[in-house]
User: Fold Acetamidase/formamidase family protein from Methylophilus luteus.
Amino acid sequence: MAEHTCSPGCNHGVTPENEALVKEEFHEARRSFLKDAFAVGGSTAALGALGITMSQSAFAQSPKVGAGAGRASHYYVPANDKTVHWGFFSKSLKPLIEVESGDYVTLETLTHHANDDAERMVRGDPGAESVFYWDSKRKGVDRRGIGAMNAKVGAGGGLGVHICTGPVAIKGAEPGDILEVRIVDVTPRASANPLYKGKAFGSNAAAWWGFHYGDTVEEPKKREVITIYEVDATGERNYASAVYNFRWTPQTDPFGVVHPIIDYPGVPVDHKTIQENHNVLKNVRVPIRPHFGTMGVAPAEADMVNSIPPSYTGGNIDNWRIGKGATLYYPVSVAGGLFSVGDPHASQGDSELCGTAIECSLTGTFQLILHKKASLPGTPLESLKYPLLETQDEWLLHGFSYPNYLADLGADAQNSIFAKSSVDLALRDAYRKMRDFLMSTQGLSEDEAISLMSIAVDFGITQVVDGNWGVHALVKKSIFPPRKT
Assistant:
């Protein structure tokens, strides 16, 4: 496998000072990637030639590996102020790298909630420090969202909150193609603070955008609460434990702007102004489900698109199943696809009810496979116009209140979507997608598909906090006869 570590000449944000560190991280990540890839099971001809095994997609043929004597390349992109975009997807962003179909990319991702406890999640980490840097004169990453750069609350207005690493261009990708993204590995980003060696941390915000907000029994009825969780970065423990929680108090950022609520991403929390409540959720073990809440390609409908509402090109789907071993299929909307990933989570339940998951920085390794439009007729991917999730045992289709809200809601879509979502609409979209999926991929009649949906398909609430609410439909592969090859 050909290796590529981002370097100063690549302009991927690696400086001479941290180049050695990045190279060591790359080789360590690659060792982990190779070890885990061997353990997944199954094989394909292309990966077998590399000495790597992983499960075969049920839909897609074996990928063609990248150029260069039939060898796939492996790229490593660290997360820092030069490699992330904060709060938006954009068809105008310059790609960090361009890869061939079948290549591998390891991308570091940072949670936008790291400054809830900077001592644990930022301190001593050069990449995180460069992104979250903020003094009285400048921010490491100024624009945070798609709003005005002179917005009172901060540049970008916080209209979009997720730190995304990318974009990555796929050579030859054009509108109408399908991008297959295989998640080969996901690992937590260990705290760089020596006091917390071997540990990673994440933040859960029960915030004003949560479904619960104002519908509580204890006073004050409207309150925002942050809970900090600890994760074992070595992988020996498969659960997270709460460390402490605190109520949000008005925070004054380094520019002097007061934030009475959580209204702008990355505001550093001054822990002298809050009360840490320890011994919360005592002896409760939260199962770890490392995954990426936000992942997808750039939409074509607008130049800058808020990272919060998900849509037909993916984005902030917030499904905990989008983790190691899963495969996502995305319809390509712009040249190169422009794949980005962020919003890393240590764990989340269906609904993400209170506002966030355990927001925890992660590193992921992905294989990117391009399916050209001309090759799709007669295949199950032929009519795919939405993000499809495949796991070893299941297919999951994602329904949204508005399947493509950017087109469905007109010129004011990025504002009006937040007032128009409902679970009913998302369920209707999930029903329609699953009906068509069963008819087109399994050859069922409409009557057969409708009956099967009621007795063998599970519909669940993906999330009710992202503006464009989500319902997923899950069907087990095992109920169908083997596909003919």
Remarks:
- The chain has eight helices and 26 strands.
- The first strand starts at residue 2 and ends at 5.
- Helices lie at 19-40, 45-49, 118-121, 126-132, 405-408, 413-420, 423-442, 446-456.
- Confidence is low (pLDDT under 50) at residues 11-19, 30-56.
